[in-house]
């Protein structure tokens, strides 16, 4: 009897163990998906800049007019502005990298359900790998720019697809996704800088990073444990058609034709694909999430791309270029920490995060104008705090959308809401561009 009892207990124990293993694999899988999805997007800006600079030097076969010289301290030697401005704002590069993502997020949620998840992931992997190859092997400026656009397309389509994918798993995978996207900024910056610092060329560095799209492929198709309901190779429309056919067949078997006619309309209204009217209704309900998220990202990217390069302290032990790199690094560290915090703390008051981020932007705007901050150390603290607010806003926004949206609407809602951060970033790029021009004219 004891032996029988122990044997009977084994399946239950194995079931619990397998469930925990699957849960851990899914969390880890989404962490790597977040890391890989944003990695090319993060790396591509600095890599494309390096390669474009190299191409300019290689193509300079004829005498050219005198150019702006930059000394070894990262200071513009021909710049007369007290802000030590670069000729072109970093906001201009930001706009080139964010606009393709914004266009995808605006329109793709309405049609992306026709593309199975397996096909979407394969497309993102191919496009990301192509972006690395184009920029690393390019021989013309337009090819490098095309590579940056490809990286933006991959990141935009991947983000809305993987956010939609989370609805098929337990809600804790959102924490893995958020932490992975936060880690992409830190890992991308450190790995690219590290490889180039030890002497590898930007081209070779980008070819090495082709392992990242391959890691995305492994994470999705091998590491994740997908549920049977996941439409891996069939579109959502095909799934609804198959389910509808099975239900109608059961109705024919279990009841007469009159009962079938009464039951079918009710089922269609509750299980079929969302209509355009229903999608617009969902979007109206998402505005309370999208506006705060967009405002947070508008404020923080206004700081990052419009003000950081103007927050220069000449008497600090770091050069201007080094100060800027540390601003960006500390921001990414803050994002990583807060996007990984969902398992510890959840913040429902998203507007509070938005207002605090706006206060940061206004404070630093006045600091640039009147230069009252005593040291870069204080800016380091503010920038780290800025990253904490931005990462918390992102991961909590999608957690509460997932929690408060109806089951049938959740997949579309997660994809549609992803436009919030990209829209805020794009608007911040425009604002930062003009602010940069204003201050550099003083």
Automatic annotation (TrEMBL):
Domain of life (superkingdom): Eukaryota
Ranges of biased composition (kind: Basic and acidic residues): 245-270
Region of interest: Disordered: 245-272
Subcellular location: Endomembrane system; Lysosome membrane
Matching Pfam families: CLN3
Chief location bin: membrane
SUPFAM superfamilies to which the protein is assigned, alphabetical: MFS general substrate transporter (SSF103473)
Cellular component terms per the entry's GO annotation: endomembrane system; lysosomal membrane
Record-given protein name: Battenin
């Amino acid at each position: 009897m004891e032996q029988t009892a122990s044997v009977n207990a084994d399946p239950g124990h194995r079931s619990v163990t397998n469930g925990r293993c699957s849960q851990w694999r899914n969390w880890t899988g989404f962490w790597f998906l977040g890391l890989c999805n944003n990695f090319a997007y993060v790396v591509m800006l600095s890599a494309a800049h390096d390669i474009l600079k190299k191409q300019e030097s290689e193509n300079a076969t004829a005498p050219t007019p005198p150019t702006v010289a930059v000394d070894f301290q990262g200071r513009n030697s021909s710049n007369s502005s007290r802000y030590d401005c670069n000729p072109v704002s970093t906001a201009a590069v930001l706009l080139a990298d964010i606009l393709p993502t914004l266009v995808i997020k605006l329109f793709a949620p309405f049609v992306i359900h026709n593309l199975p998840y397996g096909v979407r992931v394969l497309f993102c992997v191919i496009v990301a790998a192509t972006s690395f190859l184009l920029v690393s092997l390019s021989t013309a400026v337009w090819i490098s720019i095309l590579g940056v656009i490809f990286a933006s397309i991959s990141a935009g389509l991947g983000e809305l697809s993987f956010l939609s994918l989370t609805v098929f798993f337990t809600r804790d995978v959102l924490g893995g996704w958020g932490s992975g996207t936060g880690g992409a900024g830190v890992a991308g910056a450190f790995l690219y800088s590290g490889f180039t610092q030890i002497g590898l060329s930007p081209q070779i560095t980008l070819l090495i990073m082709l392992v990242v799209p391959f890691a995305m492929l492994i994470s999705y198709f091998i590491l994740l444990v997908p549920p049977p309901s996941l439409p891996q190779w069939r579109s959502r429309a095909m799934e609804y058609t198959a389910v509808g056919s099975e239900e109608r067949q059961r109705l024919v078997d279990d009841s007469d034709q009159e009962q079938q006619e009464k039951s079918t309309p009710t089922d269609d209204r509750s299980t079929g694909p969302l209509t355009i009217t229903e999608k617009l209704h969902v979007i109206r309900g998402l505005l309370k999430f999208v506006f705060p998220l967009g405002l947070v990202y508008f404020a923080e990217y206004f700081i990052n791309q419009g003000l950081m390069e103007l927050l220069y302290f000449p008497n600090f032990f770091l050069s201007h270029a080094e100060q800027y790199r540390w601003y960006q690094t500390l921001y990414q560290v803050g994002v990583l920490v807060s996007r990984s915090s969902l398992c510890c703390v959840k913040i429902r008051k998203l507007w509070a995060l938005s207002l605090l981020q706006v206060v940061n932007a206004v404070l630093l705007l006045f600091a640039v104008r009147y230069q009252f901050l005593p040291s870069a150390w204080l800016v380091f603290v503010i920038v780290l705090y800025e990253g904490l607010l931005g990462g918390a806003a992102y991961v909590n926004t999608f957690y509460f959308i997932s929690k408060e949206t109806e089951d049938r609407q959740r997949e579309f809602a997660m994809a549609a809401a992803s436009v919030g951060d990209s829209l805020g970033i794009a608007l911040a790029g425009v604002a930062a561009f003009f602010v940069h021009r204003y201050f550099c004219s003083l």
